[in-house]
Amino acid sequence: MKILVLSNMYPTESHPTYGIFVRNQVELLRENGIDVDVAAITDPGKGKAAALKKYGGWALETARRLIGGRKSYTVTHAHYAFPTGLLSLIGKRLFGVPYVVTVHGGDLDQMARKSAGIRRMTERILKEAAHVVTVGRRLYEEVTDGYGVPASRVSVLSMGVDTEVFRLRDREAVRQELGIPAGEKAVLFVGNIIRAKGTRELVDAAAILDREGEPVTVYLVGSTKDAGYADELKAHIAGLGLDRVRFVGTEPQERLSKWMNACDVLALPSYHEGFGLVALEGMASGIRVVGSGVGGLSVLLGDDRGIPVPPKDADALAGGIREALDPESRAFDGESIRREVARHSKDQILRELLEIYEDAAAGR
After folding, report:
1. Residue 43 in contact with residue 50, Cβ under 8 Å?
2. How far apart are CA 249 and CA 106, in angstroms?
């Protein structure tokens, strides 16, 4: 079996978290003896000129690999329906290579809604795929009901959590390593520092707790790839008079797990979320999770695994954080959390993914 993985996001040393979930899956396949080639965009930079350069180069690299390996590739696996899936669709039509496409959320929630043309192309990509993987149940329903893809060719399969990395650690030791003072109430955010991740509402929630005499320190871990918004957010924080918001920057996964062990609450107030892998990684690391009840997050936080709150609601978010900080809170069921983490283990993901590839190659 030989797979060509295509993705418009893939990490490098300069951008270690950019599409890290795709690389993790690639490495899982390689560790288990699967021959995997990758053609991906590794530069998160914005702007029309940068976009033309990187997307053009990516398309040429994909074409080169398909032309050279069209007889050896079992399937191509596209991450994100559009634009990535378009390359797989072309590969199928020109070279007869079947493809699998993973829908992550933004491709349907944002990209497909930009224009009627992109939506039609997204529908064609999904319908011609040998199999469509969705990272959450809501996306499964949208693909089957909204795009008319037969349920027999659609699966719900997350990107999986690496429990060898995301695990319980010595809290005092990692707090000392990261410079978090003893007794400090620490709220962690992990993700891109962008508006749609609810970062403004998070600092507003911190301000609310501050006024109520329950101060917290907010640690923002992630890329400030939108420099304009990051400056706007810092100005907003200054206007609120908050002095306990820390911009940490990006962190490798091993260190990210340490942050999750060191902090008290993981806050994920996204406006939309296909799955919410960070929440699952937090659960595996033992941190209490508060997040928006949207998309895949609403499922992950269900059954007392976390505290769901409405998106774009700083007051509700402050209330969720306050409850999560309460050591007597009964909002968290440890057994339910353990079962959910196990359900998304690397071994389970690998078994299901290989079965999807085999069926796609056999035309089933």
Report:
1. yes
2. 23
Its CATH architecture, for the domain 2-160+345-362, is: 3-Layer(aba) Sandwich (3.40)
- List, in sequence order, every residue forming a beta bridge with 246; answer none if it has no partner: 219
Nearest by Cα to 264 from 312, 325, 339, 219: 325
Question: Residue 49: what pLDDT?
Answer: 80
How far apart are alpha carbons 325 and 186 in whole angstroms? 9
DSSP assignment of 264-311: SEEEE--S--SS-HHHHHHHHHT-EEEEES-HHHHHHTTTTTSEEE-T
CATH class of 171-343: alpha beta
- 100 token code pair: 């699998």
Alpha carbon distance 364, 131 (integer Å): 9
Structure confidence by residue, pLDDT tens digits, 206-231: 999 999 999 999 999 998 878 899 99
Q: Output helix, strand, coil percentages for the chain, rounded to the nearest 5.
A: 50, 15, 35
Segments making up each domain of the chain, as ranges: 2-160+345-362, 171-343
Q: Do the domains 2-160+345-362 and 171-343 sit in the same CATH topology, yes or no? A: yes
Write out pLDDT tens, residues 118-136: 999 999 999 999 999 999 8
pLDDT recorded at residue 310 = 97
Contact 326, 299 (CB under 8 A): no
